[in-house]
Design goal:
The protein has 169 residues and is of the alpha+beta class. The protein contains four helices and four strands, in the order αββαβαβα. This is GIY-YIG domain-containing protein.
Length: 169
């Protein structure tokens, strides 16, 4: 699959479904079977400059504060990109993984450290989550890796909330 286009239509053409406002997660149980595995994106509809919160609304994980300073957030921001995070979940884990991720913004502790920078976006509740259910023969980690590589080729760095330790490199 070609991972060079990242607008909503291109992702829909690749099979991404859902497009649920993050604040409205989870979807009706019939939409995402518990047996599913796949990849997902967090999509910011606005093209405006983001407003960053000083402190993350995300949960701590292993007593670590998920907050980063403004310079790190700015370094990770990808201008003109709507996709702010790409994630994956093994087969039989997609629904659980997305539930864990969403819960990171609603609980004092959590278990989804990846993608934590979204919780410093002032409009994180307005992000859309879309997912691509993969056939059992596809390995979600391999697809996620190809997606991030394609995103990096297009924008010069990974999505905002992927690999924050790289500070936008």
């Amino acid at each position: 699959m070609d991972w060079s286009d990242w607008d909503q239509k291109s992702l829909e053409d690749k099979g991404f479904v859902g497009w649920i406002r993050w604040a409205d997660w989870p979807p009706p149980k019939t939409e995402l079977p518990a047996s599913a595995g796949g990849v997902y994106v967090l999509f910011r509809r606005s093209q405006s400059e983001p407003s960053f919160l000083d402190r993350s609304t995300g949960a701590t994980h292993k007593k670590r504060d998920p907050s980063l300073g403004g310079d790190a957030l700015t370094a990770n921001w990808v201008p003109a990109a709507n996709v702010v995070y790409i994630g994956k979940a093994d087969h039989h884990r997609l629904l659980d993984r997305l539930n864990e991720y969403q819960a990171m913004g609603a609980r004092p502790t959590g278990s989804h450290w990846g993608g934590r920078l979204i919780w410093q976006l002032s409009d994180s509740s307005e992000l859309l989550v879309a997912y691509l259910v993969l056939p059992p023969t596809d390995i979600p980690r391999n697809v996620e890796k190809k997606m991030i590589e394609g995103f990096r080729r297009r924008y010069g760095k990974p999505p905002f909330a992927n690999d924050p330790h790289l500070l936008g490199r």
